[in-house]
Amino acid sequence: MIELRGLTKRYGEKLAVDGLSFTVRPGIVTGFLGPNGAGKSTTMRMILGLDAPTRGDVRIDGKHYAQLQEPLNHIGALLEAKGVHGGRTARNHLLCLAQSNGIPERRVGEVLEMVGLTAVARKRPKGFSLGMGQRLGIAAALLGDPDILMFDEPVNGLDPEGIHWIRTLMQHLAREGRTVFVSSHLMSEMALTAEHLVVIGQGKLLADTSMSRFIEENSRTYVRIRTPEPERMRDMLIAEGLRPSPGEDGAMEVEGDDAARIGELCAAERLVLHELSPQRASLEEAFMRLTAETVEYHAHTGPEAVAAEPASPAPAWGADWNRGKDGKG
Ligand SMILES: Nc1ncnc2c1ncn2[C@@H]1O[C@H](COP(=O)(O)OP(=O)(O)OP(=O)(O)O)[C@@H](O)[C@H]1O
């Protein structure tokens, strides 16, 4: 278990991590999500004692990292694939780590086998691909057979096969009862991997919830309607107290999930339907909505533009809606 209480890190003027309190529990994969620069890596470094908190506290099974004897036996971490001594072979790199943590030599062969690097064990990591480097980093994390594992953006730059492998491994480790904490800035990836989510933005906690509840609470549900008689449809919906708004490709959207009621109204009014489909906004969209105001860096657009776009609702077709370009109605 990892416990953070009011964890805070300031770099000069910059508050990188701002009073974070949450607990990462065993037996499940916990996703640690936030846009670039949200403070995920800084938080993970403080968990590992690589950075000192400005305020607050973080404990691993009740202890500070520095209090752990042979820490690799308690917590294994993949922070950066590049953290490998280029001159040593993969096997020797792991052997050095094993020796300094009182881990038996045979474990090196076991973890190399687990991550599929046995064939290149005597090669130097300098020539490794990104995926092989990640595998070696994961082998190091697994070396002490720790109960807690932490991965910082483990799938960055990997091909689909590598991504699938890491995802399956993390779920397997969690099923064994371990605590698995993995950071990402991709909601879609986390949705396939994590059961629990911790979301941060600009160093602050935005959500600490199960994946299913996060989806429930953050994603918009709406009904998409297509009809050859949009004006009749709109009038009928408004008369029923619903608020249709223009959707993509000429469709209409109505907030909520009451497709059945809309279908019955259409039948009663003999209104032709080409499409009536309940929709749920994608998880990526839910994540963007949640973090929109905290996005620090974004390509091409300023933070205000990014914040406004996903958060603002589509314009509603109300009383002042321009009824058709031909001026009728
Ligand atoms: N050593 C440092 N000195 C000064 N500022 C830092 C330092 N490390 C991180 N920061 C700043 O703290 C903030 C959080 O950075 P951090 O790397 O923890 O974010 P992150 O969520 O891991 O982002 P990314 O997904 O881009 O890796 C950023 O604004 C970053 O520029």
Automatic annotation (TrEMBL):
Gene3D superfamilies: P-loop containing nucleotide triphosphate hydrolases. PANTHER family: ABC TRANSPORTER, ATP-BINDING PROTEIN. One of its GO terms (molecular function) is ATP binding. The keyword Thylakoid does not apply. Residues 304-316 have a biased composition (Low complexity). Residues 304-329 are annotated as: Disordered. InterPro entries: AAA+_ATPase, ABC_transporter-like_ATP-bd, P-loop_NTPase. This is ABC transporter ATP-binding protein. Keywords: ATP-binding, Nucleotide-binding, Transport. It holds the Pfam family ABC_tran. It comes from the Bacteria. The keyword ATP-binding applies. CDD domains: ABC_BcrA_bacitracin_resist (cd03268). PROSITE patterns: ABC_TRANSPORTER_2 (PS50893).
